[in-house]
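Record type: ASSEMBLY
Status: queued
Input:
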Amino acid sequence: MLTLSKYVLLDLLRNRSVLIYTVVLGILSISLLSLGDQSSKGLLSLLNITLLFVPVITMLFATIYFFNSLEFIELLLCQPVKRSRVLLSEYFGMTLSLSASYIAGVGIPLFLKVSGAISWMLVITGVLLTFIFTALSLLVFVLFRDKTKGIGAAIVIALFFTLLFDGLVMAFIFSFSDYPIDKPLLGMMAFNPVDLARVLMLLQLDVAVLMGYSGALFKKFLGSATGSIFSIACMIGWIVVPLILSVRIFRHKDL
Amino acid sequence: MPVRSLICLLFFFTCTQQAQAIISATITAPGTGLQAALDAAKPGDTIMVKAGLYKLHNVLVRNPVHLVGEGFPVFDGEGKYETFIVTSGRVYIAGIEIRNTGRSSLSDMAGIRLQDVSNVTINNCRFYNTTYAVYLQNSSWCTISDNRIQAQGTDELQSGNGVHAWKSSHLLIRNNVINGHRDGIYFEFVTESRIEKNISFNNIRYGLHFMFSHHDTYSGNTFRNNGAGVAVMYSKGVDMQHNHFDHNWGDAAYGILLKEISDSRISGNVFQKNTMGLYMEGCSRIRVYRNTFSANGWAMRIQANCDGNRFEVNNFTGNSFDVATNGSMVLNVFQDNYWDKYEGYDLDKDGTGDVPYYPVSVYAVITERIPAAMILYRSFLTNVMDQAEKVMPSIIPDQLKDSSPKMKKWPL
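Status: finished
Output:
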């Protein structure tokens, strides 16, 4: 499995797209962080990039790569190796290379310019999002036989989590604002990894304003360490569940 | 008690007219000795108190004397009594430590109580676990300076204030460090007074509480991490300068809360990391200038019933929301401030932006109506809403604007 992962990783690192992804992220971070004398503004822009571009690009790139390496996977499966191993090594090769480019592109400029818990949290959330959306694209890959359909599904999933979900939550909040919706809202957040990542960052960036929220919810739950642990646990769930599902489906899949 | 028998009390009677007379005595029951010495003293005498533990209560200072401790003698109220009551003017108390005054529902028990006096100074004393440390009633021209005032109050009803002043005037409260009380400094009907360079932190309710107190100045103080920050109410002619309001967090915590304040001045203050930096309700003709608002949840909240206030030359940086309000009527002036969220341009390069800045963001209005919407703050959707609102303002009060926002931060 390690050898396979290493091979995928090296293949991807040689791939020009990953390099371009890294360079683009790097240029964006450096320019945003050196834009003003204040780091908070640059951090906010980086947060927006992380929350919007990382899911979309990861999802698309990983899906396309998985479909392109279908023949390679078929070839490997002629050998006496387990299906789950092949799939997982593909996954880890992919996600590790994308995480590496995120860390290189965003993490390094961030640590050079802004140190502290906020930088750590941003890098951790970015890496977690990369892991999550690679897992989701793996699920798309095992579910769809057709490459075009798969890419279409990947686009829909990425846009659903970055845009549509929040729109639905907003509609929910507006229609049920007269009711105690705090707890259902917290539950809903768990269904979107992008929102979980955002809440994690909010706890670092806007803790003062969250403390002022008149319901006891934010202060008691999200304001404490429990909130962060809850968010991270949910995000890890978002990695593990799609992975298990894809392995299960792939085991019985007629290639 | 063995300690008590070893306690030594020394009196130095220094009469201004005569040569210095020193009386030293070893007293096993120090209470009677001190009260007798205080009563026997002539005006201007100095009474030195040696280090030790004195379990005294209701010591009356009826003559204008200097009471000076050597090595911080400890006066213990044993959790039942008041310790000193000053009823004479021109008293000077320094270098003593007062502990454990009693609590009572009927009377406010104080470490040192000043009753109807003037020109009293309390300097360099320590107050530990007192209900009220210094309590001024109908007093004037008094100075409370360089004291350390500390308590472990847990709730508002069971504890008192650090420095409590009622119906007084011309006070100077200076260089005190106060924590753990209900209110750090409490003023009610106190006029023409100054509060300078105090540090008031970790108090249960307010760092400074101020009611019906006109023409007072407070400057250079630090108010940090108090339950609800600082509250200034029903006063006029208040001058607030160069204070620091730090880290007051909570759903009812304000850097400073102003209610029914008029003709006042707020300048050179730093508001940092408060849930709400400055809250104004029913305020008139206040000039707010050269202040720094940074990393607050809401930098300012200006209720619609404020009028004639001017907000000029302030820096707003890194606040989640710059200004919040509760209506569309705006009778205040915002100009020449620096707002880090300003996205306008300056074509003629005069340092002033060419398009006005609207400090109330659409999401501030939305979360005002539906607090639960806060959970979507900083999501892509809310950014889109903010941008749309900038193009076509429909939700935000469009009267509330800074028509001459600065492009660069003011050097404050």
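Annotation: The radius of gyration of chain A is 19 Å.
Annotation: The mean pLDDT of chain A is 87.
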